[in-house]
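RECORD TYPE: inverse folding
INPUT: structure tokens
STRUCTURE:
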């Protein structure tokens, strides 16, 4: 035993001596140098004099020493450098003022040019303590602020700079990062480093206490908490990239496309359209897009929000399927005016707020959002190393320490999608456990000859001894060896297997075991396993085997039964399984027991269902299927708000996910009424979310919040407002003035007057309502200078300024010819009146009264007297009226007369009265009307147009066997009588030619030499033909009369005597409205009896006062001249001429060709040259009582 122990100690001492000698006599090496984040170090050796060179990852700037040297003391010289990126680039800025194009944006545009040129650097006005500020949009830990000054001329020196940083927009409320009291040289770059890294959102640069103009060409704010653009996709130009909140943003402003095109482009970058936009992100996007705005072809930019076009829901979702909770809609948006606006854009025309548009617009720009693809170089503490060089997303690096050291901290770190490593860099700690502990009956060996951290000591037991525990002990983190093993002596005897069974032994030494088994169907009676204990004995007796059978178990509905070992004897196992959405009611396994039966009872498969979900008070649940995977949704009634998850799902554990939410009822109650105002409950409720608006009555102003909302706190937002009446203050009282006030507090007016010398109160103690009107009046002889009225405005002030009173007097007024003037108050001061009067039969032209005006002159011009004259009535006479006007002075007369054929109706004369008007009324002219013409015996009277007015004509015709004695026609004259005397029809005693009988009906008329039978036949034929023709003529004439009379009555709306009817023109073949001759036939030959007679010329109707010439077929002409009538027969042709004289002819006169007295005609078959049968101008025949004149040819 002593020999083993001595050997053990000697081995340990030998190893330790070797280790100590190596440490003492080895060289002094420096540890592995520390490396900051985003930094790389190049070091080949660590011996004294070796150099470690630091470089930054792309996109970062190095601050501090770029090299460190290994010293003789085994330590690296210098201070650890730092690599950081500029987080101020193109962020929103502000400054105290702007001068000469020096906008604040010029200081963080990335251009370090020191020449201003009007648009490269910032510049403030000359002022006290000018400042410049950048908003980083979120809090960063800043180490250094780099300032580039303006070059040239030295008239904008930077001196006394203070760098302040914090979360306040007010400079002095932020902490001081750095202070530079001196002057920074023009055109240089200066790094101002914080005493220690400082956190803040706003960075201020101020020339504290200095009066001058501050000009900055570039300001860079460096932080290690943001990665550079180089970490983003290599497919995107750096100029199109932006970094914010550890996220890459690509501003695609050089091309356009639809919403789907934009998403596809962004997904190719490993991201999607920008989504999950909060206030900070929206401010960043707006700032960046404003810079791109001048190069954009449209100001609509896609973002990753949309809604399903098939749903009516107003819910919007981001492209990552999360619901949009915070929105930034522009005015009157979303409107979805065409029902297809299911996508969202940022609208540059509305401050980059949201606008809903159609998703198929194919020309819009977009913004992509994606995470960086790699992490930067990890930071390392001194003496640590990292073996891996893979820094891609999701990769894992491991830190290692030198031999004898242990890692203190995170051994492994993972590259996150933020572009940064999780955890922190660990450190190394040196650990020495000294010599390992001794174990009896064993020897120990140091594996690598050391006793420091991680060293291993292996124990070996002596022969016939068994190791109990681990044979290796390790030097741990706390400088202690792990528990070593022990060595114990053991050896057991042989043992046999049971009948129908077997045995398996691991050995017969201490700790070895002997395991027994039975054949299938046999039960093991006794211990299954026994072990060899110390001292050489087994822990128990060998067991026995007995056979048992249970039979096939029943199957399972909606599940399956599985015989695990495909047997049904003892210890055989049957396993039951149900479908995925079923649960097993009963045991999942059954075993063939020793009594030959399967354990328990067969289970059944039940559909997994959840209990009814809890129903919160004031809420309700939608969804009535409680089977597995079913969802129920919780809703709250109006006036309640939901606390908790609104959707729960039935799980396979038969429980609903989450906890039951609750509905909390909120009622804010009605607000107190507002005096002189109205409260409008926009929702007509006072529960949660209800909105009220308060308005004030006219001439009142609202003090407080006009819009209030019922909050969850059961209170209305804001405070109760008041309606304050708007009133005007006291009035000034000018000397010598009075004023009246109308419309104030129900008083109609009030007058106040102040005499000269009285003290002037500054303000009247009363106040006045809005709309009150004060009217100033001055004492007699005084005029108001200024505005005479002042009104209390809705602003509570009087408009205009108070007027003053000035005394005014006018000179003596001018006199007028043929008139006089009178001073009504015997005064000529302001406001006095002078009245003018004219002599009799004269009237005043101008103002009757004149007033003394404020400019000391009389108003208007001096009037004049003009003689009174009546108007000239000859210019406004009615039709056919004449006037004799010798004078127009007062007392003269106007005498009226009418044109020929008319008579005066009314007063024939009018006197000019003193007022310059003619007395009475103007008369009118009416046509002269004659009485009914006398009838003649043995003849007929024929009125050509059924009129009796002046100029009307009647014709006289005698019956057969009678000759007309006297004028054939008579006309109505101007004195209302018919011209000439009434003619007479006398019996003709001479030979009547062919006529032997001239009775009225003409039935006995017969030609000489004609037999009575022939005469009777001709008479009958003529009678029939005449009746038919006469009937047709009567019908035609009657229709014509009705038509023309109807037409004439429509036009005659006045006295028919004043406006005679329009003359009727005879139609062809119907020249006499009572007789038609065109269809009469010869009873003996059947020929028309007038077929050889030339037709009359179409008659012309014209003025009876004009000369007319008519021509007919036989050359007889008639001439009319005024009141006389002559006949002149000559062959002058078929033309008619008329010359109008006087006032014109009455329209009721119808002219027609004159007809000579009827003469016996020449019938066919007779000798027309026989002296007995010829007349001077033709012959006359009577047919059925109608006289027909036949002209000789």
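DESIGNED SEQUENCE:
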């Amino acid at each position: 035993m002593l020999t083993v122990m001595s050997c053990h100690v000697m081995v340990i001492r030998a190893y330790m001596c070797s280790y100590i000698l190596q440490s003492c006599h080895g060289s002094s090496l420096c540890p592995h140098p520390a490396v900051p984040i985003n930094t790389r170090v190049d070091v080949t050796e660590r011996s004294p004099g070796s150099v470690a060179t630091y470089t930054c990852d792309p996109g970062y700037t190095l601050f501090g020493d770029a090299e460190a040297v290994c010293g003789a003391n085994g330590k690296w010289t210098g201070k650890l450098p730092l690599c950081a990126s500029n987080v101020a680039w193109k962020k929103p800025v502000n400054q105290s003022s702007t001068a000469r194009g020096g906008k604040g944006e010029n200081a963080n545009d990335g251009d370090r040019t020191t020449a201003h040129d009007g648009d490269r650097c910032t510049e403030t006005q000359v002022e006290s303590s000018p400042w410049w500020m950048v908003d980083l949009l979120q809090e960063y830990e800043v180490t250094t602020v780099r300032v580039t000054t303006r070059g040239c001329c030295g008239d904008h020196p930077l001196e006394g700079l203070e760098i302040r940083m914090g979360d306040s927009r007010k400079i002095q409320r932020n902490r001081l990062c750095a202070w530079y009291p001196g002057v920074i040289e023009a055109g240089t770059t200066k790094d101002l480093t914080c005493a220690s890294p400082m956190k803040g959102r706003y960075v201020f640069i101020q020339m504290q206490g200095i009066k001058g103009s501050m000009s900055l060409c570039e300001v860079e704010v460096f932080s290690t908490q943001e990665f550079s653009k180089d970490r983003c996709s290599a497919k995107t130009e750096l100029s199109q990239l932006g970094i914010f909140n550890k996220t890459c943003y690509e501003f695609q402003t050089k091309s356009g496309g639809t919403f789907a095109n934009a998403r596809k482009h962004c997904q190719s970058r490993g991201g999607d359209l920008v989504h999950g936009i909060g206030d900070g992100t929206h401010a960043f996007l707006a700032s960046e897009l404003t810079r791109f705005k001048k190069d954009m072809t449209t100001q609509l930019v896609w973002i990753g929000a949309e809604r399903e076009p098939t749903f009516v829901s107003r819910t919007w979702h981001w492209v990552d399927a999360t619901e949009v909770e915070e929105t930034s809609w522009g005015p009157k948006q979303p409107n979805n005016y065409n029902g297809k606006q299911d996508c969202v854009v940022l609208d540059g025309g509305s401050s980059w707020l949201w606008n809903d548009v159609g998703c198929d617009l194919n020309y819009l720009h977009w913004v992509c959002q994606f995470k960086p693809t790699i992490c930067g170089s990890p930071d390392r503490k001194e003496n640590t190393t990292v073996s891996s060089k893979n820094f891609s997303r999701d990769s894992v690096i491991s830190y290692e320490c030198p031999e004898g050291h242990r890692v203190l901290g995170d051994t492994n770190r993972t590259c996150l999608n933020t572009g940064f490593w999780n955890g922190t860099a660990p450190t190394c700690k040196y650990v020495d456990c000294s010599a390992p502990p001794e174990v009896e009956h064993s020897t120990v060996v140091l594996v690598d000859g050391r006793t420091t951290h991680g060293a291993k000591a292996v124990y070996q037991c002596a022969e016939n001894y068994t190791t109990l525990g681990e044979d290796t002990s390790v030097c741990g983190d706390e400088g202690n060896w792990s528990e070593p093993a022990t060595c114990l002596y053991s050896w057991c005897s042989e043992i046999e297997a049971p009948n129908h069974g077997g045995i398996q032994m691991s050995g017969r030494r201490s700790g070895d075991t002997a395991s027994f088994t039975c054949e299938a169907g046999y039960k093991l009676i006794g211990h299954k396993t026994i072990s060899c204990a110390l001292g050489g004995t087994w822990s128990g007796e060998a067991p026995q085997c007995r056979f048992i059978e249970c039979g096939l178990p029943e199957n399972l509905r909606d599940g399956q039964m599985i015989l695990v070992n495909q047997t049904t004897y003892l210890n055989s196992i049957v396993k039951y399984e149900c479908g995925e959405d079923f649960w097993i009611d009963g045991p999942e396994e059954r075993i063939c027991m020793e009594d030959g039966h399967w354990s328990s009872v067969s289970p059944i498969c039940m559909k997994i269902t959840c209990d009814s979900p809890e129903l919160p008070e004031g809420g309700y649940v939608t969804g009535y299927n409680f089977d597995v995977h079913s969802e129920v949704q919780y809703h709250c009634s109006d006036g309640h708000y939901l606390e908790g998850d609104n959707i729960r799902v039935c799980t396979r554990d038969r429980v609903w996910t989450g906890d039951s939410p609750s509905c909390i009822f909120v009622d804010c109650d009605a607000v107190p009424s507002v005096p002189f105002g109205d409260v409008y409950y926009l929702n007509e409720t006072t529960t949660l979310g209800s909105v009220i608006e308060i308005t004030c009555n006219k001439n009142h102003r609202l003090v407080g919040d006009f819009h209030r909302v019922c909050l969850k706190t059961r209170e209305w937002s804001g405070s109760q407002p008041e309606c304050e009446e708007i009133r005007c203050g006291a009035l000034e009282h000018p000397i010598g003035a009075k004023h009246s006030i109308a419309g104030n507090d129900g008083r109609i007016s009030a007058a106040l007057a102040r005499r000269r010398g009285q003290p002037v109160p500054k303000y009247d103690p009363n106040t006045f309502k809005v709309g009150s009107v004060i009217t100033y009046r001055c004492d007699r002889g005084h005029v108001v200078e200024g505005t005479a009225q002042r009104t209390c405005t809705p602003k509570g002030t009087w408009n205009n300024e108070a007027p003053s009173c000035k005394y005014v007097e006018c000179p003596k007024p001018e006199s007028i010819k043929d008139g006089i003037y009178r001073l009504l108050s015997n005064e000529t001061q302001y406001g006095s009146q002078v009245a003018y009067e004219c002599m009799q039969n004269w009237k005043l032209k101008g103002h009757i009264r004149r007033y003394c005006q404020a400019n000391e002159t009389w108003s208007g011009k001096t009037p004049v007297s003009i003689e009174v004259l009546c108007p000239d009535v000859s210019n406004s006479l009615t039709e056919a009226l004449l006037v004799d006007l010798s004078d127009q002075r007062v007392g003269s007369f106007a005498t009226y007369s009418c044109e020929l054929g008319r008579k005066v109706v009314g007063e024939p004369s009018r006197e000019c009265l003193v007022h310059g008007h003619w007395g009475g009324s103007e008369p009118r002219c009416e046509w002269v009307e004659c009485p009914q013409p006398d009838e003649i015996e043995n003849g007929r009277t024929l009125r050509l147009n059924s009129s009796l007015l002046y100029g009307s004509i009647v014709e006289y015709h005698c019956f057969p066997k009678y000759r007309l004695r006297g004028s054939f026609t008579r006309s109505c004259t101007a004195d209302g009588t018919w011209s000439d005397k009434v003619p007479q029809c006398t019996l003709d005693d001479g030979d009547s030619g062919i006529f032997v009988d001239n009775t009225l009906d003409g039935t006995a008329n017969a030609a000489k030499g004609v037999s009575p039978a022939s005469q009777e036949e001709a008479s009958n034929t003529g009678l029939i033909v005449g009746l038919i023709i006469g009937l047709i003529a009567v019908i035609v004439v009657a229709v014509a009369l009705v038509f023309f009379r109807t037409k004439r009555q429509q036009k005659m709306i006045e006295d028919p005597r004043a406006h005679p009817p329009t003359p009727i023109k005879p139609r062809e073949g119907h020249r006499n409205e009572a007789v038609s001759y065109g269809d009469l036939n010869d009873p003996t030959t059947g020929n028309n009896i007038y077929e050889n007679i030339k037709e009359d010329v179409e008659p012309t109707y014209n003025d009876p006062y004009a000369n007319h010439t008519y021509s007919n077929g036989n050359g007889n002409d008639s001439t009319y001249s005024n009141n006389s009538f002559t006949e002149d027969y000559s062959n002058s042709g078929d033309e008619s001429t008329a010359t109008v004289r006087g006032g014109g002819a009455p329209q009721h006169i119808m002219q027609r060709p004159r007809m000579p007295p009827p003469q016996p005609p020449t019938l066919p078959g007779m000798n027309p040259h026989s002296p007995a049968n010829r007349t001077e101008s033709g012959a006359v025949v009577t047919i059925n009582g109608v006289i027909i004149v036949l002209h000789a040819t």
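NOTES: The longest helix spans residues 1012-1051.
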